Amino acid sequence: MQMKLFVNGKEVEVPTSAMEKRIVEFLREDLDLTGAKNACDVGACGACTILVNDEPSRICIKLVKDFGGQRILTIEGMAAPDGTLHPLQQAFLDCGAIQCGYCTPGMVLTAHAFLLKTPHPTRAQIRHAIVKNLCRCTGYQQIIDAVEKAAPHYHREERRLQAASTSEKPAHEDTEETTG
Ligand code: FES
Ligand code: FES
């Protein structure tokens, strides 16, 4: 049976010939998604980071066959279909957090995964979240500024999801919660 991946919301069928390929090469060469960079080749720098089921994954050392059925987000999937940048991408631009740009896709996706879980971060938490993604250019302060600037978007998203889950909850669950 042919293996499938779900990349940026689209189903992708993987040819058998590509199963043993490194997934960073598959994304870049076969799917033309060149955001993830192959920089260190040993899992040390974070330039190849993508999200797999919302968790950061360094893919320079991983094979396509390890990702069957997984939900993948690359930097190309962050912007809206009309090209409008995601608020986190926009914050990177606004804060001057991009210089050569080599680390940027991995940095943005690492920060995105962090903010999904931690929408009200301190600067120390942000610093810790990105500490394993190396940037040779910026000195990190602008990147931390950008993540901090984008956090209110994730507050709003958190509230929206909470409101949606409350309105979807069956009436009896609300009753159970209030009656204990
Ligand atoms: S290229 Fe994968 S961690 Fe450096
Ligand atoms: S902007 Fe150049 S490595 Fe980060």
Account of the protein in words:
- The radius of gyration is 18 Å and the shape is globular.
- α2 runs antiparallel to α5 and α3 (104-117) crosses α5.
- It has helices spanning 23-30, 87-94, 104-117, 123-129, 141-168, 171-179; strands at 3-7, 10-14, 49-52, 55-58, 71-73.
- It is 41% helix and 12% strand.
- The protein folds into two domains: 1-77, Roll (Ubiquitin-like (UB roll)); 81-166, DNA polymerase, domain 1 (Orthogonal Bundle), CATH 1.10.150.
- Residues 174-180 have low confidence and may be disordered.
- The protein has a five-stranded mixed sheet, with helices on one face.
- Bound molecules: FE2/S2 (inorganic) cluster (2 copies).
- Residues 98-104, 135-138 line the site of one FE2/S2 (inorganic) cluster (FES).
The small-molecule ligands in this entry are: FE2/S2 (inorganic) cluster
Query: What characteristic shape results from the CA principal axes?
Result: globular
β-sheet strand percentage: 5-15%
Q: Using the coordinates shown, work out and report the CATH topology of the largest domain.
A: DNA polymerase, domain 1
DSSP strand tally: 5
Pattern of helices and strands: EEHEEEHHHHH
Q: Mind describing the biggest β-sheet?
A: 5 strands, mixed
Q: Tell me, rounded to a whole number, the average pLDDT.
A: 92
User: Could you name the CATH homologous superfamily of the largest domain?
Assistant: [2Fe-2S]-binding domain
Q: Examine the secondary-structure arrangement and name the CATH architecture of the largest domain.
A: Orthogonal Bundle
Distance between the termini: 48 Å
The residue ranges in which pLDDT falls below 50 over 5 or more consecutive positions are 174-180
Number of domains: 2
Individual helix count:
6
Q: Class of the largest domain in CATH?
A: Mainly Alpha
Q: Strand order, biggest sheet?
A: 2-1-5-3-4
